[in-house]
Amino acid sequence: MSILHCSTARIVVGYVNKSDIEDIPSHERVDLLDLSDHLIDTQPNDTNGTYREYGSGAFASVVALKWILVDHCLTLSQPDAVIYCDVDVIWLDDAAYDVTAAFRARPAVQLLVQSQDVSAAVWLPCTGFVAYRGSERALEIVRECRNRHHEALLQVTPGAYIDDETVMRDYYPHSTPGEIQSLPQAAYPVGSLANLYRREAFLPGLGAPRPIIFHANWVIGMKAKAELLNRVLRELGRAEPHHV
Q1: Mean pLDDT over each residue of the chain, to the nearest integer
Q2: pLDDT (0 to 100) of residue 209
Q3: Distance (Å, rounded) from C-alpha 207 to C-alpha 227?
Q4: Is residue 78's pLDDT more than 70?
Q5: For 23-30, what is the mean pLDDT?
C-alpha cells in the first residue's frame, strides 16, 4: 500500500471475493467496498478470487466494476478529485496532490488519464490510473461509460473482448473537447517504459526523471509484476524494496 506512505488521501478498496483483500492492511484511511453484487459475469467459474489475466472473460467482467467504485467515491463527500488506481500501480510521490493541482490549474478538464501512446495520431488511454475531478460532469461521464460497458458486456459475442479502455476510447469522440486529457508519460509511466528509468545516462548530468507513480502493466502474472516494481524501486535509489 504505497499510497499510505506517499499521501494522506483516503483509500477505498473495491473487491469481489474476500480472498481479494486478505493482504490489505487495516488502517483508519482504508475502507473496503464489496462490489460482488454488481458483477456481470460472462464466465461464472472464472472469478474465484485468483489472478485474472488481461484478456480473459473474468478480467473483462471485473474491470467493469471500476465505474461503480469511482461513482461511489465521487458521491462520498464532494471530493476535489478521485483517483482510480490498479493494484499493480505503485506510488513514488503524492499523485493526489499533483492531479488536484492540475484540476485547479485547468478548470475545463474533468478526467486525467494515464497514456500508453506511441503515436500522436492514435490516443491509447491506460485506464489503470485515472483521475476524476470531483464534479457533476465527471460523474456524468462515469455513469455514461458504466452504461456503455454494461450494455456491451450483455451483448458481447463469443471470442469478442471489451474492457474499460475500449469503453473509454469509444466514448472519447463524444466528449466535450478538452475535458479528457492524458497525464504526462514521464511522470505517470506504464510498464513498457521501464527502461527509461534506469540509472545509466547517455551523458553526465542527464539523469532519468523520477516518476510520480509506476504502473507494472505489460507484464502478466503477479510474480512478474512484483519483480518489475521492485526493480523500478531499486533503480530509483530506495534503500529497501517496498512490499508489492
Answers
A1: 87
A2: 76
A3: 23
A4: yes
A5: 90
Domain ranges of the chain: 2-182
Going by C-alpha positions, the residue among 200, 20, 54, 194 that lies closest to residue 116 is 194
Q: Is the pLDDT of residue 141 over 50?
A: yes
Cα–Cα distance, 229 to 173 (Å, whole number):
34
Question: Position 221: which residue type?
Answer: G
Are the CB atoms for 201 and 125 separated by under 8 Å? Answer: no
CB 14 within 8 A of CB 24: no
pLDDT the model gives residue 196: 83
Per DSSP, the three-state class of 23 is: coil
What CATH number should be reported for the domain whose range is 2-182? 3.90.550
Residue 232 grid coordinates: 523500478
Contact 180, 110 (CB under 8 A): yes
Q: Which three cell numbers stand for residue 240?
A: 529497501
| pLDDT score recorded for residue 239 | 38
**Positive or negative CA dihedral for 39, 219, 27, 21?**
positive
49-58, 120-129, 154-163, 191-200, range with the lowest pLDDT = 49-58
Closest C-alpha among 176, 148, 179, 1 to residue 66: 148
What nine digits make up the cell of 199?
540509472
Say how far apart CA 214 and CA 91 lie, in whole Å: 7
Residue 242 reports pLDDT greater than 80: no
- What would the DSSP string read from start to end of 186-198? TTS--GGGGGGG-
Q: What is the pTM of this model?
A: 0.87
3-state SS string for 64-78: CCHHHHHHHHHCCCC
